[in-house]
Amino acid sequence: MGAFLSCDHNDEGFIEEVTMLFELQFINAGMSGKIIKKEDLEFNEFVEFSPDSTFIKRRVFVDSTSVAKGSYALIESDGTNYFELNYEKGSYLIQSCGNSLKEWMSVLNDREIFNGGYLPCDGPGYGYELVK
Known about the structure:
Elements: E1 20-28, E2 35-37, E3 44-49, E4 54-60, E5 65-77, E6 80-87, E7 102-107, E8 112-115, E9 125-130
Antiparallel strand pairs: 1-2, 1-3, 1-9, 3-4, 4-5, 5-6, 6-7, 7-8, 8-9
């Protein structure tokens, strides 16, 4: 699978017409700077971005799965690309400070995204890697 960002900057966006699945790889614990690897978490988490600008986030525990969904846009600001996620309804899976239905994930490269939405309020950051 190639990069999901292309050199073409057109109104159609940057994303290939394929579904992209990202898996949580680590959590940056925030103030302590501790990195918790996925092997040490009590859950696994996936974010699936579909070509129709919708997404599904799943947090999978041993005995249950939590799901949140909504729409997204890929935005460029000051030379940085990021996904803006707009959730359909409130969920504990929304990783941002306050009661927002929005979440932002920075595009680090063609395989990694990072959500530091909790970091300003001393919370964790979430690092994901493209798996499909």
